[in-house]
Write the structure tokens for this entry.
Amino acid sequence: MTAPERVTYVGHATVLVELGGTRLLTDPVLRGRVGPLRRHGAAPAPGLTQGLDAVLISHLHHDHADLPSLRRIGRDVRVLASPGGGEFLGRHGFADVTELAPGESARVGEVTVTATEAWHPGGGRFERESRAVGFTLSAGHRRVYFAGDTDLFDDMGKLGGELDLALLPIWGWGTSIGEGHLDPERAAQAAALLSPRIAVPIHWGTLYPLGLARLRPGPLSTPPREFVARARDLAPQVEVRVLAPGEATSLA
């Protein structure tokens, strides 16, 4: 029986990628609350973290490298992390950590994981000092790009070519986003540069400050609609699939 090739948008930047019989989980945030941020949408499915082959950490900001979520998975999980991640996670008991700088690769089962450039400066309340990266995942004829958290950067277009899927951040966790992030307009520009067969928007609709959902609900639902509209204009060759937290799609 052929293993499924699909992605599940767990929420925020957490995506389960099933490729080549390998299960990879990106930037796990599995809790109902992270500091003052409350989770919206579906909770992670039971069994989500069972049988994981590795976790990918794009950078060490609290909403991407959430220690309680990583502990829930287990300290023996294999982690591929951005530069600086090995020392940080090692201090917290995670022993199997490999740092990948842009251009460096590691093999996980049938998947080759390669770190890519990203532009995401730090400095906010949820941000540990760290360097950010993205990742490409390749297995057989399949190729997936997980952008992590980034804005547009000069060589982004060089990551394109024969991409089955691009997982593109389109928002954040608040009512506005600052530098180092893609909003729906710039995410559509990224889709145009990368020209993947499929684009799935991530980093939206999941984490939001406690109490704001009633007062300013728009950022929980409008970013993907705006992304779809702008991608239709800027990247009409790309099929956009919007997944709510908890939903999955095949790479077929």
In short: DSSP finds five helices and 17 strands in the chain. The mean pLDDT is 94. The first helix runs from residue 67 to 73.
